[in-house]
Specification:
With about 130 residues, this protein is mostly helical. The protein has helices spanning about 5-10, 25-60, 70-90, 95-105, 110-125.
Length: about 130
């Protein structure tokens, strides 16, 4: 007679020697990952909008006064991005360099999307989410 497997054991049944992740830790990491992903996407979109605004203003001498709010909102979104990446990094126990690279990705156009996908893949695999 076989005994029912724990959900985390079932997820790792095909991986011999893989450590079991406590369900509560998985829940906390999943929640932190979700917040990080949302913040990364919002920051990335606002950064692209900010770059477009700057190109229009300084490259083409266009009046972009209607987009004056973009820089402030991106700044606030970037702060949220830093906080959510720190939160995820603490829960996932990232090394400092991983967190630094993740944090910098919020100020380079398109990089926040790439790094978000990479971190999502890593965290999902590590914590069997």
């Amino acid at each position: 007679m076989t005994q029912p497997q724990h959900p985390t054991t079932a997820a790792t049944a095909g991986q011999p020697g893989a450590p079991r992740i406590h369900p509560e830790r998985q829940r906390r990491v999943r929640s932190a990952l979700r917040m990080f992903s949302v913040a990364a996407w919002i920051t990335g979109v606002l950064l692209l909008l900010l770059v477009a605004r700057m190109v229009m203003e300084y490259g083409f001498n266009m009046d972009v006064s209607a987009l004056a709010w973009v820089a402030r909102v991106h700044g606030l979104a970037f702060i949220a991005f830093l906080m959510t990446s720190l939160n995820l990094g603490l829960k996932a126990r990232w090394p400092a360099m991983t967190w630094v690279v993740t944090a910098i990705s919020g100020v380079i156009p398109f990089l926040s999307f790439v790094v978000e996908a990479q971190r999502r893949k890593e965290v999902t695999a590590t914590f069997q989410l």
